[in-house]
Structure prediction request, 168 residues.
Amino acid sequence: MISEPMQDALSEQLNHEFYSAYLYLALSASCSNAEFNGAARWLETQYEEEIQHATKIYRYLIDQGVKVRLAQIDQPPAEFGALLEIFEFSLAHEQSMTARLNDLSDQALGEKDHATYNLLQWFVNEQVEEEATLGEIIAKLRLVKDDGYGLLMIDNELGTRTAAPAPE
Prediction:
């Protein structure tokens, strides 16, 4: 059985995961509006992945017999700037999510809640991949700066991303 403080913390994380999805959808729309359709597709795929993450937490809470209460999702910003700024913003967001997940992991360990800790380790490991991938994209965007051909090449590469399989 999950403690009430852990239930509350996981419910809050569930809301953050849904916000992340909403944020990536807004970022995708911003890229679409700027005709960076490859980046838009990459960010839309990220949206889908964040929905899967939220669903993973939701199902865990249900399996643990928690009465799930969904909170209101904050509205993401509408303006993001250039493509480089969009991916830098994404990285900063993922770093904040990593910090939240690390805090949740610490809480689970402190409570000796090994099942929740095990769940959270999947997310912690996923964050390593998320941050590394965004770092690579940012490095490429910094390399080409405002070169139109370079941005086109990166945009095309981003458009080849395929959805990851749903987490179990």
About this structure: Helices lie at 4-33, 37-63, 83-110, 114-144, 148-158. The mean pLDDT is 96. The chain has five helices and no strands. The chain has one domain: 4-158.
